[in-house]
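To: structure desk
From: M.T.
Subject: fold request, one chain
Message: Could you run this one when you get a chance? Sequence is below, nothing fancy, just the single chain.
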Amino acid sequence: MTTRNFRAAARRSQGWWALEITGDDLLHPAYTQVRRLDQAEDMVRDLLALHFDIGKDEVGRIEVVPVLDADLAEEVTQTRRARDQAEKGSRPKPHCRLGGRLST
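Reply: Done. Structure tokens follow.
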């Protein structure tokens, strides 16, 4: 049996991720929503089974693609930068021995 591949474009919408699903042999996009992106793949599989009679074993790869507007993309960039700086600050400093004494 051949599997079919799908793409879920995810856009933020009032605290939810709105999903637009396209893919192999779908005549038109399908729509659903999830609270978190880690729930998207299961939700897409359920939607395909219920509305298009596509068995879960027929579904191959589901590509979940977040689509961010400029404000949200900037917020993600700032959050990643702050996380990176926090991780650098929390790393222990390397120690070395000088003349038999431990130095920092």
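Reply (cont.): The longest strand covers residues 4-13. Let me know if you need anything else for the meeting.
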